[in-house]
């Protein structure tokens, strides 16, 4: 049975290229934070460590986990399956650890709809501009310009999900963005005042989608 000493769930989502994974890595270094490790059917990238960045599994194993109802949420993203298993998340929350999720909007929606008895704070991270996003996407391991263009199209669709998140944060400066998220989490936990300007966010989204 959840109690007030339980940890909280913090979801970070973003369109591809907004710098979310770096933010999750920074946040995970704060004491008492555990990052949820997802399962995926995608192939590991060169810099990724199995069982640390992801549990890399084949489709058969993923199907087995679905059929066993082991997932708290799962979704298909860019043609691969991704999912969060329930047991490690609940164990950590019950031990009072805060759990960080680096998952897409589909997973965030599913966790939100579960209405678990643990506090949930959701963040949507956005790039400072479309030009900077395109630059970031073109400089990734995906040097192929076509892929960057495809992800820009995906961006226009993904950005529309901002409305379902508690907070939207613009990643124009990594450290500032990190501190903003930390301050909002602290304010949520302590019921303190929040430095958050929704009109500024709405304007930014208007620019990103025009
Ligand atoms: P990548 O393949 O670049 O690591 O991740 C692609 C997208 O999948 C990112 O938006 C990431 O947040 C999302 N993702 C990673 N793990 C999960 C998961 O367990 N569930 C869901 N729904 N999305 C995930």
Describe the structure.
The protein is of the alpha/beta class and 210 residues long. The protein has a domain at 9-36 and 96-209: Rossmann fold (3-Layer(aba) Sandwich), CATH 3.40.50. Helices cover 42% and strands 20% of the residues. The protein contains 8 helices and 9 strands. The chain has helices at 20-28, 59-67, 86-94, 105-114, 130-138, 145-158, 174-190, 198-209, and strands at residues 9-13, 33-35, 38-40, 54-56, 71-77, 80-85, 98-102, 120-126, 167-170. The longest helix is centred in the C-terminal third of the chain and has 17 residues, at 174-190. Guanosine-5'-monophosphate binds next to strand 5, strand 6 and helix 4.
> Which ligands, by name, code or SMILES, are bound?
guanosine-5'-monophosphate
Main structural class: alpha/beta
- Rounded average pLDDT: 92
Which radius of gyration do the C-alpha atoms yield? 17 Å
* CATH homologous superfamily assignment of the domain at 9-36 and 96-209: P-loop containing nucleotide triphosphate hydrolases
Give the CATH topology of the domain at 9-36 and 96-209: Rossmann fold
Are there runs of 5+ residues with pLDDT below 50, and where? none
Largest sheet: 5 strands, parallel
H/E series, N to C? EHEEEHEEHEHEHHEHH
**CATH C-level of the domain at 9-36 and 96-209:** Alpha Beta
* Helix residue percentage: 40-55%
Count of extended strands: 9
The fraction of residues assigned to DSSP E strands is 15-25%
How do the strands of the widest beta sheet line up side by side? 2-7-1-8-9
Distance between the termini: 47 Å
Architecture (CATH level 2) name of the domain at 9-36 and 96-209: 3-Layer(aba) Sandwich
How many helices in DSSP terms?
8
Shape: globular
